[in-house]
Amino acid sequence: MPAGFAGDGQLNDAPAPEDAAARPAPPKPVLEFDVALADLPRLLRSPVLTAHRDGRARSVALRTVWHDTAAGDLAAEGLAIAEDGAHWRLERRQPNGCGDWPPATPAPVLAEAAAPEALRPDLSGELVAVAAFTGRHRSYPLRSDGAPARLD
User: Fold this and answer.
1) Using the 8-state DSSP alphabet, how is residue 42 labeled?
2) Residue 71 in 3-state DSSP?
3) Arithmetic mean of pLDDT, 35-63
4) Does pLDDT of 104 surpass 90?
5) How much is the pTM?
């Protein structure tokens, strides 16, 4: 059927379908699981995962510091400014608005900048650290049916 015509033969204002090569690739599928820390070693040794391992695990150090004003201006709005090395993010601390946190989900990032002043220039006071996390992130390369995958 020619572009611009509906299934009933009537002319419509819909744009012509894009060329398949011009369309963006669909997002890669992501599965997220919430695994108890005590069960993690057993999961990593499971025959299903070991059969699909594709190389050595990679580990990187993580450190995140969350900031707010001394008066708690950001917390009052359900927000925080997070610092990861030289990167700063404005995050929503109550993603669904009521304080419940959906399992295995990161905080929604509202904005990113090289300096915290660019995220919220309207704040009334200096930022102070209110919480911090230090840990490690491990990534396990996998391969299944010839397609690469990753367990983070």
Assistant:
1) H
2) coil
3) 88
4) no
5) 0.63
Over its C-alpha atoms, the chain yields an Rg (Å, rounded) of: 23
Q: Rounded to whole angstroms, how far apart are CA atoms 79 and 72?
A: 10
Query: What are the strands, taking DSSP E only, across 43-152?
Result: 58-69, 79-84, 87-92, 109-113, 127-144, 147-151
Task: Please state, in angstroms and rounded to a whole number, the distance separating the CA atoms of residues 133 and 152.
Answer: 17
Q: Residue 69 in contact with residue 129, Cβ under 8 Å?
A: no
Alpha carbons 81 and 2: distance in angstroms, whole number? 51
Over residues 96-107, the mean pLDDT reads 71
Q: What 3-state class would DSSP assign to 75?
A: helix
Q: How far apart are CA 56 and CA 119, in angstroms?
A: 38
pLDDT above 50 for 4: no
Cβ burial 16-47 (10 Å sphere, 16+ → b, else e): eeeeeeeeeeeeeeeeeeeeeeeeeeeeeeee
Tell me what the mean pLDDT of segment 54-63 comes to. Answer: 90
Is pLDDT at 87 greater than 70 in this prediction? Answer: yes
The single residue listed with the structure tokens 């396990």 is 140
Largest CA distance in the chain: 65
